[in-house]
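Predict fold of DUF4174 domain-containing protein; 140 aa.
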Amino acid sequence: MLKSFIKEIIGASPALYDPCPSLVSFRNKCHVLVLFEGSADDLPELQEEYLANQHEALASRHIALLRVAGGGVFSSFEALADISADQIRADLNGPSPEEFEAILVSPDGAIKFRSRRPVSVQHVMEVIDRLPRNDPVAHA
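Predicted 3D structure, encoded as tokens:
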């Protein structure tokens, strides 16, 4: 809070201090589940099983899904997203390209959850439900 107050007084742009600049297009709109799909094991396949037929459930809770794989970033509909894989990895302190990690980012750009194991949609929703109620997107 003090940092925000000081930034406001000195006139620093909030964009300069965005916790995850590569996801700015999602800011104040939705949560983002970022999946770093490493190539060293079968965790991406297990994650895919957890997500099977769950796109409607994610959309109903305002959760965007991004997959970082093979040097690209893909939306939940397999379309290439206009986000740099290296930048999102750096912004979120993500794993190496060979490792798997799931990261939930809140609408304000803060990391709310990290897992080195695949996560179910139900678990992601439970994490969101435990967040403070002052987040209108999370509890719409």
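The longest strand covers residues 63-69.
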